[in-house]
Amino acid sequence: MKLLARHISALIGILICLTASLSIYWDEEFQFYFVKEQSSLKVGDKILLADIKTDISKPLYIHFFDERCVDSKVSLEHLPLIIDKYPETCNYMIINGSSLTERDLRKAYQLPESVSIFQDSNFELTQQLNVPTTPHALIIDRNQSLYFTGNYSDGSGLCSATTIYSSAPAVALRFLASNNQPPLFTNYQVSFTGCPIN
Fold it and tell me: Could you state, in order of their start, the residue ranges of all structural domains in the chain?
């Protein structure tokens, strides 16, 4: 009888630890992969850039950033690799939804001076562009039509420094640099994943 009681106590302890671990994982990570609202953005849609003063002689690559999101921090760490590979393909812009100043953001993530930073800590522009999560990228062509919208996935998860060139935005840039039509991606690569923008 005492042996059975020990086994039951051990099992209860294991279940409590497992429940606590799952709860922490949910709070820290997993909940962000479920986004209730989806954007109505579609490739080919006209994008009004009245609030953004930028050179439209080249396509515009927009990266959405919020320092409160771990995935957003990771993708911004790797963005300079994409910029270095395709420096002349686009003008690059960060929509900064964090409290970091432009100078601090540029320094923390080693962003080149050629990258524009638009402060959007109240998320007005982000919401106007129908982007409900971060990290996310948009590529807008010279005609102000949406060429690409998607996350930093290679189809199996968030890209790392070694897989960033396989990310959906990098592949779209490769097509754009070759003057090709936008590529087709899996639903996961163009869906809104990561952290909801509040």
Answer: 42-196
- Local confidence band at 93 (pLDDT 50, 70, 90 cut-offs): very high
pTM: 0.77
DSSP per-residue codes, 68-130: T-HHHHHHHHHHHHHHHHSTTT-EEEEEE-SS--HHHHHHHTT--TTSEEEE-TT-HHHHHTT
Q: Which fold has domain 42-196?
A: Glutaredoxin (3.40.30)
**Cis ω for the linkage preceding 135 (within 30 of 0):** yes
Q: How many Cβ atoms sit within 10 Å of the Cβ of residue 169?
A: 28
Give the chain's radius of gyration (CA, Å).
20
- How far, in Å, CA of 7 to CA of 24, rounded? 26
